Amino acid sequence: MRCPAILLTVALATLLAPGAGAPVHRQGSRHKLLLVSFDGFRWNYDQDVDTPNLDAMARDGVKARYMTPAFVTMTSPCHFTLVTGKYIENHGVVHNMYYSTTSKVKLPYHATLGVQRWWDNGSVPIWITAQRQGLKTGSFFYPGGNVTYQGVAVTRSRKEGVLHNYKNETEWRANVDTVMAWFTEEDLDLVTLYFGEPDSTGHKYGPESRERKEMVQQVDRTVGYLRERIAHSHLTDSLNLIVTSDHGMTTVNKRAGDLVEFHKFPNFTFQDIEFELLDYGPNGMLLPKDGRLEKVYNALKDAHPKLHVYKQEEFPEAFHYANNPRITPLLMYSDLGYVIHGRVNVQFNNGEHGFDNNDMDMKTIFRAVGPSFQVGLEVEPFESIHVYELMCQLLGIVPEANDGHPGALRPMLRTESALLPDGGSALLPDGGSALLPSSQPLLMMGLLGTMILLSEVA
């Protein structure tokens, strides 16, 4: 009886191991993928405005209650998290601005988009990973999409001009048409498409403004036009569409009596600072001069009740932000609604982001529709790091090392449409956990097979 017992033990161990019960691969056709980001679209912007097209997308596909972006909740860092699956400290694009603590150079957002060494610092985004596995990709205005990575450029890319008008709805439709041509005429497999709204309007007028609500309606019209063009291009059955964003937006307390103003802190002086990165929303970095770290830290740590100042090594690990050589010895963030003013008050936005990613105003949207997605499904909130793994599964490519979980978003997919890296597909058990690879029907089938095996051995 010892041999059957050993066989039973081995069979049970195999069934209960992580990933056990994975179905046999079957060959399936690979679908195309379009990732669309509307910058600064807060998770609840569709609740005070009629958004029939976003609502239809939810009915026809998948909607998340909200998505939690990475910290720090800024445009370039959060967009790069989506295409790498990494927390910001691990992909290294730690700010919208390129900066150097040695040369003291600081570049604005648009100029930073073209600085290769800022983006190409060890992480390989999904465009390059897909191309290395035989696919063709495109990036239209998407942050990080117009530089080379390890010597490889995105197949097709567009970068906006420095004075680009992000609000032009006519141009939005032309951009959609261009992307459709990339799919149909140039046979691209993956495209990332970026729109700079409603972020710009939220900054200028505030997230509760009439102007923001009107811009959300423009976004919704664009989603409708996009889906019309997908149908007109005969891509409905072959293109998966994801609509999401990088972060939310909150109202700035511009007239508060307790503004965070460094130039008014009694025990602090900029003469102790070698390099500063302030006046960019609610977060900042400081490099004190040699021997003055403790002095500056002690002057700032309790300087303002809305300001949270840390030494780099003591920054909360849950943010996954500080453990990167680009981060300065002192870093900080302020409470929701409070921006940081440095030498003078130069920030005049009515809306801002960059706050704690646990604040609800920083949460953002996620919608998905297409041949691989379930219909009429609403899922619980999740972190944006998981979107990369989902996109790799949809494209059938092997992902790079990342911080996401490959099973986290699989319940969004139709049971027959969870693509495996070899281009085949896996049948996911109905009702199976997003994180645990188990299901009673699979287990019972495995036990039945074991019993048959034992009867033959006996």
Automatic annotation (TrEMBL):
Claim: Transcription is one of the keywords in the record: no
Keywords on record: Cell membrane, Glycoprotein, Hydrolase, Lipid metabolism, Membrane, Metal-binding, Signal, Transmembrane, Transmembrane helix, Zinc
Reactions the enzyme catalyzes: a 1-O-alkyl-2-acetyl-sn-glycero-3-phosphocholine + H2O = a 1-O-alkyl-2-acetyl-sn-glycerol + phosphocholine + H(+); 1-O-octadecyl-2-acetyl-sn-glycero-3-phosphocholine + H2O = 1-O-octadecyl-2-acetyl-sn-glycerol + phosphocholine + H(+); 1-hexadecanoyl-sn-glycero-3-phosphocholine + H2O = 1-hexadecanoyl-sn-glycerol + phosphocholine + H(+); a sphingomyelin + H2O = phosphocholine + an N-acylsphing-4-enine + H(+)
One annotated Gene Ontology cellular component of this protein: microvillus
Membrane topology qualifier: Single-pass type I membrane protein
Main subcellular location of this protein, as a coarse class: membrane
The name this protein goes by in its record: Ectonucleotide pyrophosphatase/phosphodiesterase family member 7
Organism: Callithrix jacchus (White-tufted-ear marmoset)
